[in-house]
Predict the 3D structure of the following.
Amino acid sequence: DAGITQSPRHKVTETGTPVTLRCHQTENHRYMYWYRQDPGHGLRLIHYSYGVKDTDKGEVSDGYSVSRSKTEDFLLTLESATSSQTSVYFCAISTGSGMNTEAFFGQGTRLTVV
Amino acid sequence: QKEVEQDPGPLSVPEGAIVSLNCTYSNSAFQYFMWYRQYSRKGPELLMYTYSSGNKEDGRFTAQVDKSSKYISLFIRDSQPSDSATYLCALSYGNNRLAFGKGNQVVVIP
């Protein structure tokens, strides 16, 4: 599992509430990512980080923010959860560089917004 | 827009058959090509990784890339019931970001 831990693993929350998901890695990799997975859409990139305090948007970033105050933790926040954000969220890290780059995923957080 | 096309139709095969999966893409900016396997309610697991045109083998798995046609394939020989999973192609671009196909659900029938 490349030392990736996501928490919580499951969460049910109400529309309009803020939610924060945590991704923790143990191996000090520079790059970290948040993806969401939905039926019919596959995995889509929400936000990513290329270092402490360095983050950028992915293709489905609206309604989400991220923070990375230390190398090992990457937080994803839903400022005001909506039903369209019901999904499975995966954190990933990228290892190596250039042609030796590989990406590994956490076990996912299943979020339901009611 | 970085698009990856993968026909998401489920695939059922008898045990021992060859499974053939493929993806196409349109953007030459993709640099590296990966296949992930995902079991139900689990995270994607890296199966194969390649960065050049040609074939790469790992046991019963072969990844094939044709950059000129923008076409990648995964072949599973002597398929086993334990190969039943969803297979995702993933293409890497700037800052090691990944663009995924929608995935193929494969069922290997004993």
User: Anything to note?
Assistant: The interface with chain B takes residues 1, 31, 33, 35, 40-45, 48, 50, 56, 58, 90, 92, 94, 99, 101-108 of chain A (CB under 8 Å).
